[in-house]
Design the sequence.
C-alpha cells in the first residue's frame, strides 16, 4: 500500500504547510490547494487501479508498542476511496478562490489543516483492518469535521451546530464501540477475521448496535438531527465533502459489518429497507419546507441516504432469499448511488456556495433572478437538480434504475419479502416525485423570476477555481448518466468484496441493461441538442429585445407578487404546522367592513383560525408565512360560510395583521 500512504502523506503535508505559512495568505492557500489536490489525484489513480484489477493490498504498523495499526484495501475499500479522493480533489480546487478573504488568513489556514485531516481520516476509515485502527481513524474524522463545522464560531447558531454534531458523533461512536466490544468478547481479538464465529444472538446484537452508530453518522432518521444544523454551518466546500462522502462512511460501516457477520436472516434486510424508506420520504418532505438553501440540501442528503439504504436492504433480502440477481442489483445499485450522490450533491453545495459567497445570504426568499447574471452557477445547479431528481439522461436516473430493478426482482418472492419489495418500489417513486417538487421550487425561487431584495441584484459569479470544480462535477453527472456501463461495473466489482457466496457474478445481464440505458440517454441528449440547435439557427438573424413578461392584468407588477419559498411549499408546510400557544388579540375589521349577515363572532373566530393556519400562518418547517388559495377553496366548497367571509379575510390579510396562534376576538 505504498501508493496509498504516499497519497495521504501528501494530503496531510498540504494542511501542515498551509498552517505554518498562514501569514502568507496567497502562498498558504496555493500550497493547500496544490498539495491536497496532488495527493487526491495520486490516491484516486491508485484506488481505481486496485478496483479494476481486483487486487487486495494490506499493511500493518506497531502502535505504542502494544497494538498494531492494520490497513487493507479490497474492492469495497477501493470504491469508497475513489469517491473520497475525487470529491476532496474538487473541494480542494474550489477552496482556493472560496477562501480568498485576506482578513481571515489564520482561519483559512486552520480550515485547510483540518480539511486535510478529514480527507486522510476518511481514507483510513475505509481501509482499517482492525478495531484499533478503525476507532482511531473514526475519532480523527469526527473531531476534524467538528472543527470545520464551527469555522464561523462567532455566530451562536454555528456553535450550537458544532455542539449538536459533537454530541451525536460521540453517541454514535459509543454504539460502534459497544458493537466492537461484543465482537471482542466473543473472539478475544482486535482483528476482523473471526467475526463470523459469533453466536446468532451476538450477531443480532452487534448488528443493531452498529446500525445505530453508523446510522447516526450517515444521517438516518431519526438520528439525522445534527445534519441540517452542521452542513449549513460549515464552509460550502466542506459541506460538499461532508454530504458527498463523509456521511457515506456510515454506509461503508453498515456494508462492511454485514459482510463480516455473514447474516443470512431476512429481518436485517427488512430493517434497513424500512429505515431507508422512512429516511427518504421524511428527508425530502422536510427539505420541501426549508427556506435556507444549504439547510434544504442537508435534508436532501437524508433523502438520498434513504435511497442508498433501500438498495442495501433489497440486497440483504436477496441474499437471505437466495436470489443472486436481486442481491447484486440491490447492493450494486446502492453503491452506484453512493457515487452519483457524491457527484451531484457536491455540485449542488458548491453552486449554493457560490450564491451565498456572492449574495451574503442563504435565505431563498431574499434571492431570485440569479440565472441571468450567474449563468455557469445556474446551469450547474440545474444539472445537479435534474440529476438528484433521478431524471434521464443524468447520473441520478442510472443509479436509482438499478435499485428499482432489484425491487422488481423481489416481487417474485412470497409473503414478507414481497411486501417489502413492493414497499421499496413505492417509496422510491414517492421520493422521486417529492424531490422533483423540491428542486423545481429551489430553481424557480433562487434562479428565476426577479431579485426579491438588494442582496440578489446585479450579482455576478467569480473565482475560476470555483467555476472549474462545478464544471467538472456537472460534466461528471452527464458522463456517468449517458455512459453508465463502466461506472456501474465498478460498483459490481465492489460488491464482490462483500463475500455473498456467489462464485461468479454474471456480467452479461448488467451489460445489456446499461447498454439500453446508454442508448436511451443518448437519444434524449441528441434530441435536446438538436432542438436547441434548430432554435439557434432560426433566430440567428433576428433582433433580440428584452421586456417585462405579461403581468396577468397587473399594470405594475412587483417582486412581492412572486412565489416565496414558503408559499410554493404551502401544502407541505402544513404537514407539521405546530402553532405556538394561543393568546387573545383584539383585531378590528378593515375600514368599511362589517360581518356578513348571519355570521357570529364565533364563526369568524373559527374561519380566522382555519384561514390563518393555511393562508398566512407560520410553520415549524420554514418559519415564514405560507400563502395560497387552498383555504379559500376549502371555504367555498364546504359551504359553511358565505362568500363575503372569504373576501373579508382576503382584504384583512392585505393589511398584514394576521399571525398564527392568536385566538381572534373580533371587535365590532
Sequence:
Amino acid at each position: 500500500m505504498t501508493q496509498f500512504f504516499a497519497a495521504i502523506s501528501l494530503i496531510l503535508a498540504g494542511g501542515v504547510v498551509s498552517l505554518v505559512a498562514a501569514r502568507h495568505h496567497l502562498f498558504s492557500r496555493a500550497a493547500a490547494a496544490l498539495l491536497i489536490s496532488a495527493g487526491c489525484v495520486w490516491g484516486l489513480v491508485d484506488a481505481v487501479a486496485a478496483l479494476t484489477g481486483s487486487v487486495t493490498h494490506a499493511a500493518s504498523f506497531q502502535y505504542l508498542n502494544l497494538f498494531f495499526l492494520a490497513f487493507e484495501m479490497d474492492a469495497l475499500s477501493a470504491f469508497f476511496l475513489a469517491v473520497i479522493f475525487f470529491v476532496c480533489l474538487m473541494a480542494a480546487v474550489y477552496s482556493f478562490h472560496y477562501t480568498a478573504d485576506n482578513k481571515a488568513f489564520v482561519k483559512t489556514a486552520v480550515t485547510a489543516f483540518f480539511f486535510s485531516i478529514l480527507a486522510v481520516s476518511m481514507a483510513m476509515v475505509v481501509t482499517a483492518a482492525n478495531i484499533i485502527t478503525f476507532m482511531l481513524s473514526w475519532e480523527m474524522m469526527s473531531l476534524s469535521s467538528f472543527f470545520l463545522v464551527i469555522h464561523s464560531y462567532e455566530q451562536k447558531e454555528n456553535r450550537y451546530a458544532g455542539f449538536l454534531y459533537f454530541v451525536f458523533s460521540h453517541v454514535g461512536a459509543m454504539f460502534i464501540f459497544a458493537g466492537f466490544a461484543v465482537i471482542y468478547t466473543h473472539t478475544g481479538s482486535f482483528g476482523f477475521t473471526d467475526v463470523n464465529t459469533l453466536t446468532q444472538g451476538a450477531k443480532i446484537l452487534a448488528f443493531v448496535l452498529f446500525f445505530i452508530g453508523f446510522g447516526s453518522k450517515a444521517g438516518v432518521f431519526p438520528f439525522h438531527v445534527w445534519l441540517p444544523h452542521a452542513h449549513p454551518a460549515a464552509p460550502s466546500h466542506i459541506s460538499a465533502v461532508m454530504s458527498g462522502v463523509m456521511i457515506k462512511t456510515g454506509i461503508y460501516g453498515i456494508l462492511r459489518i454485514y459482510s463480516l457477520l455473514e447474516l443470512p436472516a431476512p429481518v436485517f434486510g427488512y430493517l434497513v429497507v424500512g429505515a431507508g424508506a422512512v429516511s427518504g420520504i421524511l428527508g425530502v418532505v422536510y427539505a420541501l419546507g426549508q427556506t435556507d438553501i444549504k439547510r434544504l440540501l442537508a435534508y436532501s442528503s437524508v433523502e438520498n441516504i434513504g435511497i442508498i439504504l433501500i438498495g442495501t436492504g433489497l440486497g440483504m433480502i436477496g441474499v437471505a432469499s437466495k436470489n443472486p440477481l436481486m442481491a447484486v442489483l440491490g447492493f450494486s445499485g446502492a453503491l452506484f448511488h453512493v457515487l452519483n450522490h457524491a457527484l451531484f450533491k457536491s455540485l449542488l453545495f458548491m453552486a449554493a456556495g457560490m450564491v451565498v459567497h456572492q449574495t451574503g445570504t442563504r435565505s431563498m426568499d431574499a434571492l431570485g433572478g440569479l440565472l441571468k447574471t450567474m449563468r455557469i452557477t445556474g446551469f450547474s445547479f440545474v444539472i445537479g437538480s435534474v440529476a438528484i431528481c433521478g431524471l434521464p439522461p443524468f447520473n441520478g436516473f442510472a443509479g436509482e434504475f438499478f435499485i428499482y430493478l432489484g425491487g422488481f426482482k423481489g416481487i417474485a418472492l412470497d409473503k414478507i419479502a414481497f411486501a417489502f419489495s413492493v414497499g421499496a418500489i413505492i417509496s422510491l417513486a414517492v421520493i422521486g416525485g417529492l424531490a422533483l417538487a423540491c428542486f423545481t421550487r429551489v430553481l424557480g425561487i433562487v434562479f428565476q423570476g426577479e431579485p426579491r431584495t438588494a442582496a440578489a441584484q446585479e450579482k455576478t459569479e467569480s473565482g475560476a477555481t470555483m467555476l472549474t470544480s462545478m464544471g467538472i462535477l456537472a460534466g461528471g453527472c452527464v458522463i456517468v448518466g449517458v455512459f453508465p456501463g463502466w461506472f456501474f461495473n465498478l460498483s459490481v466489482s465492489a460488491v464482490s468484496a462483500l463475500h455473498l457466496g456467489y462464485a461468479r457474478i454474471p456480467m452479461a445481464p448488467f451489460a445489456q441493461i446499461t447498454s439500453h440505458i446508454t442508448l436511451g440517454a443518448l437519444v434524449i441528449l441528441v434530441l435536446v441538442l438538436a432542438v436547441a440547435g434548430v432554435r439557434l439557427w432560426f433566430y440567428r438573424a433576428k433582433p433580440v429585445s428584452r421586456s417585462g413578461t405579461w403581468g396577468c392584468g397587473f399594470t405594475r407588477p412587483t417582486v412581492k407578487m412572486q412565489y416565496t419559498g414558503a408559499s410554493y411549499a404551502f401544502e407541505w408546510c402544513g404537514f407539521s404546522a405546530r402553532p405556538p400557544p394561543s393568546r387573545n388579540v383584539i383585531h378590528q375589521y378593515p375600514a368599511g367592513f362589517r360581518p356578513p349577515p348571519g355570521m357570529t363572532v364565533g364563526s369568524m373566530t373559527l374561519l380566522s383560525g382555519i384561514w390563518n393556519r393555511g393562508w398566512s400562518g407560520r410553520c415549524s418547517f420554514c418559519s415564514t408565512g405560507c400563502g395560497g388559495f387552498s383555504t379559500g377553496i376549502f371555504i367555498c366548497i364546504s359551504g359553511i360560510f358565505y362568500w363575503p367571509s372569504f373576501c373579508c379575510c382576503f382584504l384583512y390579510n392585505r393589511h398584514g395583521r394576521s399571525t398564527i396562534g392568536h385566538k381572534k376576538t373580533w371587535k365590532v
User: Anything to note?
Assistant: Confidence is low (pLDDT under 50) at residues 576-668. Residues 88 and 267 are 36 Å apart (CA to CA). The first helix runs from residue 2 to 20.
